[in-house]
Design goal:
The protein is α+β, with helices and mostly antiparallel strands and 158 residues long. The protein has 2 domains: 9-105, no CATH class; 115-155, no CATH class. Helix content is 23%, strand content 28%. The chain is built from 3 helices and 12 strands, in the order ββββββββαββαββα. A hairpin with a 4-residue loop joins β11 (132-134) and β12 (139-141). Bound molecules: zinc ion (ZN).
Length: 158
């Protein structure tokens, strides 16, 4: 079973592999995942993603619309996939490579994660160590705040 509806990005993390949990897959809880103190059970969609902030490989537990409900995983792609296969009996062999090129991905990033960019220097939050502050119509990164602060002080002659 394939499903082209998988997005290139989920929460601005790049989808590398994805799997659909169909009726042939049996959920075998192994190491519970809690979201806001509530246990997350079986989900219909799983995605292995690369988190662009720190390059971590993670397993996103998603609903049918690929909304991330919970996150687990540690290690490389194979480790994360093995962890998912251990939780879902029959899942091995159902993994697909996300059908997106680097260009598709870059385009989606610009499109969907525009709000994650500094409105002044244009960098994405994962390119910046400094804090981002969000306003109604703009985001500003800590580097730009420092720069503006310095220029204002310079204007006062101090
Ligand atoms: Zn900036």
């Amino acid at each position: 079973m394939n499903d082209a509806s998988v997005p290139p990005l989920i929460d601005c993390a790049r989808v590398l592999h994805y799997a659909l949990v169909d009726e042939t897959v049996r959920y075998t809880p192994k190491g519970k995942i809690f979201v806001n103190d509530e246990e997350l059970g079986a989900v219909p969609r799983l995605a292995i993603v690369r988190n662009l902030v720190d390059d971590d490989i993670l397993l996103f537990h998603c609903d049918e619309a690929w909304t991330c409900l919970g996150v687990s995983g540690k290690g490389g792609i194979e480790d994360v996939m093995a962890d998912a296969n251990a939780r879902y009996d029959g899942l091995a062999g159902k993994w697909h490579v996300a059908p997106y090129s680097d260009m598709d991905f870059a385009r989606a990033l610009l499109d969907e994660c525009r709000d994650e960019r500094c409105s002044f220097c244009g960098r994405f939050h994962f390119e910046i160590d400094a804090l981002m502050v969000e306003g109604d119509r703009a985001m500003i990164c800590g580097d730009c705040i420092d720069r503006f602060h310095a220029s204002i002080q310079g204007g006062d002659g101090g």
